[in-house]
Amino acid sequence: DAGITQSPRHKVTETGTPVTLRCHQTENHRYMYWYRQDPGHGLRLIHYSYGVKDTDKGEVSDGYSVSRSKTEDFLLTLESATSSQTSVYFCAISPGLAGSTDTQYFGPGTRLTVL
Amino acid sequence: DAKTTQPPSMDCAEGRAANLPCNHSTISGNEYVYWYRQIHSQGPQYIIHGLKNNETNEMASLIITEDRKSSTLILPHATLRDTAVYYCIVRSMNNAGNMLTFGGGTRLMVKP
Q: B95 CA to chain A: closest CA distance, Å?
């Protein structure tokens, strides 16, 4: 399995509080992604990164920010959590090699509950 | 990326081969067939992918028809731990940074 860890694995917080989720990889992959998974919506991309300090928005980026100061770490921040952000968050990584299909590998997930 | 069609659910007896079909009749020449699975409450797990030749790894085999319009994922000796939702995805080259789109998948239930 790809070396991807996410922390925390579970978190309960209150509306309006800031929350930061961490994704850490040991594969030295170029690309890192944050998805959320909700019933009836499947997996949706929030943000992704294609290198240190290089990030871009995904399908559902409103209310989220990201940072990548090191190759191995990709942080997802909810500046002011809302109940609609209750979800399971998955980090993924991929090598980003030109001329390939760029297989994505997923972390174990973080279950976030916003009360 | 081309659309895929999978049966919503299947059962398989423990120890038997599980054959999961996928239709991708609109696949184009540079698109690969990928399989992932998601065991309850866990992250999606990559299984295998292929272009036109059959592929095998330690987890499964992938059989792609000659016209590439359908494929079958084979778990040769299913165990209870293989109970999961299996997703067939078609993906083109140079897709780094693009969202991986999971459809409905096939819910495989392995029974003792």
A: 6
Q: Could you give the CA distance from residue B46 to residue A14 in angstroms, rounded to a whole number?
A: 34
Q: Is A85 helix (H, G, I), strand (E, B) or coil?
A: helix
Of B43, B91, B97, the CB nearest to A31: B97
Return d(Cα A55, Cα A24) in angstroms, integer.
Answer: 16
Instruction: Tell the burial category of B69 from Cβ atoms under 10 Å away from its Cβ (0-12, 13-18, 19+).
Output: middle
Residue A3: its pLDDT value, please? 93
Task: Name chain A contacts of B93, Cβ cutoff 8 Å.
Answer: 99-101
Please say whether the beta carbons of A61 and A54 come within 8 A: no
| Those residues with Cβ within 8 angstroms of residue B17's Cβ, 6 or more apart along the chain or in another chain | B74, B75, B76, B77, B78
Please state, in angstroms and rounded to a whole number, the distance separating the CA atoms of residues B65 and B52. 8
For residue A29, give both structure tokens: 């992959």
A57-96, pLDDT tens digit by residue? 999 999 999 999 999 999 999 999 999 999 999 999 999 8
Using CB atoms, which residue from B32, B34, B102 is nearest to A43?
B102
Cβ atoms within 10 Å, residue A16: 10
Q: From the list A58, A99, A109, which residue is nearest B93 (CB)?
A: A99
**What's the rounded Cα separation, in Å, for the pair A71 and B73?**
34
Q: Is residue A60 a contact partner of residue A54, using CB atoms and an 8 Å limit?
A: no
Tokens representing residue B26 in the block: 């609109």
Q: Does A3 touch chain B (CB under 8 A)?
A: no
